[in-house]
Amino acid sequence: MSDSSALDLLRGANLYLVGMMGAGKSTLGQVMATKLGYRFCDTDTVIEQAAQQSIPAIFASSGEAEFRALESQVLSQLSPYTRLVIATGGGIVLNQENWWHLRQGVVAWIDVPVEELGRRLQGDASRPLLQRPDWQAQLAQLLSDRQSLYSQADIHLTVTAGEQTEDICDRLVERLRERILPPPSSVPTDG
Fold it and tell me: Cα(184)–Cα(89) distance, rounded to whole angstroms?
C-alpha cells in the first residue's frame, strides 16, 4: 500500500536513483516505488533479461564498452514511460547522452561513504569492476572518478552506515517535497 501523502508527489515523472554499486539503489527503489504508487525497474536486471546473460558474463564476453552501450539502450527505452522508480547501474552517469534521459525525470544521488560500500561489497563476485586483488582501491578510485557526475543529480542524499531503508526512503520523500513543491512563503499573493 502506498503512502497517500507521497502519492503524485512527482506528478508522474520518473525517479532515477544514481550512485555507486552497493549504495542500495535497488532495495531503496523498490520501497520508494511502493511509497509513491509507482512501478520499479532496475536497469541491470533489464540488461540481463535482454542479453539473456549475467552482467559479469556480458563483461567477460563483450567487455565494458558493450555493457555501457546496452545500459544506454535500456535507459532510452525506459525513459519515455512514466511513474517509474528506476535504479541505475553505478556507471550510467559516465555517458553524457544518458543525462538527457535522466533529466526527463528527477535524479537522486544515493551517496554512501566508500568505507560502507567496501563493507557491503566485500566478497561480491557479481561486480566485474571489482574482481581484482586491489578491489578496495579500485572502488575508491571509481567513486572519486564519478563524484562530480553524481553531483549533477537534482537531489544529493547521504546515507549513513546502518541506516534503515525505510528511514532513507522517508528522507528522500522529504527531499522530493522540498525540491518539487515551493515553500508556502514563496507563493506570490495578490492583494
Answer: 36
Residue 2 has pLDDT above 60, yes or no: no
- Distance between CA atoms of residues 172 and 81, nearest Å: 22
pLDDT of residue 1: 41
Q: In this structure, are residues 112 and 20 in contact, taking their beta carbons and an 8 Å threshold? A: yes
User: What are the angstrom distances between the C-alpha of 50 and each of 1, 33, 56, 58, 71?
Assistant: 30, 22, 14, 11, 11
Count CA atoms within 13 Å of residue 130 on its CB side.
21
pLDDT in tens, 39-79: 999 999 999 999 999 999 999 999 999 999 999 999 999 99
Q: What is the DSSP-derived secondary structure letter of residue 54?
A: -
